[in-house]
Every structure is written in structure tokens, then in C-alpha cells.
Design goal:
This protein has 11 helices and 3 strands. The chain has 244 residues and is mainly alpha-helical. Strands 2-1-3 form a 3-stranded antiparallel sheet.
Length: 244
């Protein structure tokens, strides 16, 4: 990666609201992944059930493993509800104030999208330089990010709809076969979300994206030289609205 002069002009690439939403999503997903894994593979995570349930078991005089499973199940449902509220509220905010930039990259012809995806894949995997035409067309979110986001757009409905139906399966009188199908859909949604997370981590931790990582967990700003190199079209469209 090119050496970055930290004293150079910078530009905001991640607003405060964007960073807060990102960090909340990270926290919610982590908690739901942990509690969900404990519920899904209870035999493997009995130690977690015991650790969580022991304080409550001492008070209530019940089995710590069973109590831990119930506590984790309650946590999973509560945090899933609040995560859903966050996604709905933040999504409406983006739509109402026309702040959605995620899909700018796929408004171009498919040929250019494929060319950009190939160039980025070679860059991230083998260190090949990104061709200048691809740099000049680069948006705030490149095509690889957009394609990865489609995994979330599929996983969230699977997780939310199946999750709600599973919570109210007894009230709705759902059969055992329907419940098993919903569990399978919930697992598929979780797996898709995990794939996104792993790809996101790989890209975020790549040396090329270190300024972006620092901006996301810092003041939201990155050096203008770096931004012009990797967000060429975005910078030309919105200008150098940065500060020292």
C-alpha cells in the first residue's frame, strides 16, 4: 500500500451516524451469533449454558444448564427485536434522506461491473495493481461490496421471518415439520450472514483498506490521496469536502 501522509488533507467517508449504526450492527450480530450458536449446538456449548445459568440457578434452585439455555434464548429474542428495530429505523432514515450510496456501483453496465470485480479480486488476493480505468469509475462502495450486501439482503428476511414464526410457533399451531423447515431457513440465513462477515473482515483487514478501517473506528476521515485512488468517481461527484 502507498505510504499515507497523515498530515495531508482528509475527507469524511464515514459519517457519525454511519459509524454508530455500523458499531451497533456489529454488537448486535456478535451477541446474536453467540447466543444463537449456544441454542443451535447446545451439546457443544453446555459450558456457556452453565456459566450463564449458574448465578440464576443459585437463586432459584434450578439446574444451571437448563436455566442458562433459557436465559440465552431470552437474550437472543430480545436482542433480535432491538436489532430489527435498528435496521428498520436506519433503513427508513437512509431512504427518506436519500443517503443510500450502496448501489451506485451497479448502475453501470454489467461488463464494467465484472471488470471491476475481477480487478479487485486480483488486487486483494494477489496484490495486482488496480487498472486506472477501474479506479476512475470506483464509487464509495465498490461492486464487490455491493455483491456481498446481497447476501445480507437475502439473510435478513430469512432470519427475521423465520425467527418471528419460531417464537410464536405454539400460538400459531405450527406443525413439527413446519418448525423444522423454519429452523433450516433460520440456519441458512445465519450462514449467509456469516459468509458476509468473513468476506467483510477479509476486505477490512486488507492493508489497502487500512485508512478506511481507521476512519470507521476513528473520526470518519481518510487521506484525500487515498480516497481519490480508491473512490475516484465518488470524489469527483461530491468533491473534496474534507478538512485538515
Amino acid at each position: 500500500m502507498d505510504k499515507i501522509n497523515t498530515q495531508s488533507e482528509s475527507i469524511e467517508i464515514a459519517s457519525l451516524g454511519y459509524r454508530i449504526a455500523h458499531h451497533l450492527n456489529l454488537a448486535f450480530f456478535t451477541i446474536l451469533a453467540i447466543t444463537g450458536s449456544a441454542l443451535f449446538a447446545s451439546n457443544i456449548f453446555q459450558w456457556m449454558d452453565y456459566a450463564v445459568g449458574y448465578p440464576f440457578a443459585v437463586i432459584t434452585g434450578t439446574d444451571p444448564i437448563s436455566m442458562g439455555a433459557e436465559v440465552l434464548r431470552a437474550m437472543h429474542r430480545i436482542f433480535a427485536f432491538f436489532w430489527g428495530v435498528l435496521l428498520i429505523v436506519y433503513g427508513l432514515y437512509l431512504v427518506v434522506f436519500k443517503k443510500i450510496r450502496m448501489f451506485d456501483a451497479i448502475r453501470r453496465p454489467l461488463r464494467e461491473q465484472i471488470e471491476e470485480a475481477k480487478a479487485l479480486a486480483r488486487h486483494y488476493l494477489f496484490g495486482d495493481p488496480i487498472p486506472q480505468p477501474v479506479i476512475e469509475r470506483a464509487e464509495r462502495h465498490n461492486v464487490m461490496v455491493v455483491y456481498m450486501t446481497f447476501l445480507l439482503l437475502i439473510s435478513f428476511p430469512l432470519l427475521s421471518i423465520s425467527g418471528v414464526l419460531l417464537v410464536y410457533r405454539f400460538s400459531l399451531g405450527l406443525s413439527q415439520s413446519t418448525t423444522q423447515m423454519l429452523l433450516m431457513l433460520h440456519d441458512i440465513g445465519f450462514i449467509l450472514a456469516l459468509i458476509f462477515v468473513f468476506l467483510h473482515l477479509f476486505a477490512s483487514l486488507h492493508p489497502t483498506n487500512r485508512p478506511l478501517l481507521m476512519a470507521m473506528f476513528g473520526d470518519g476521515k481518510a487521506p484525500i490521496e487515498w480516497a481519490e485512488k480508491y473512490f475516484g468517481a465518488y470524489i469527483r461527484r461530491y468533491g473534496r469536502r474534507g478538512s485538515k
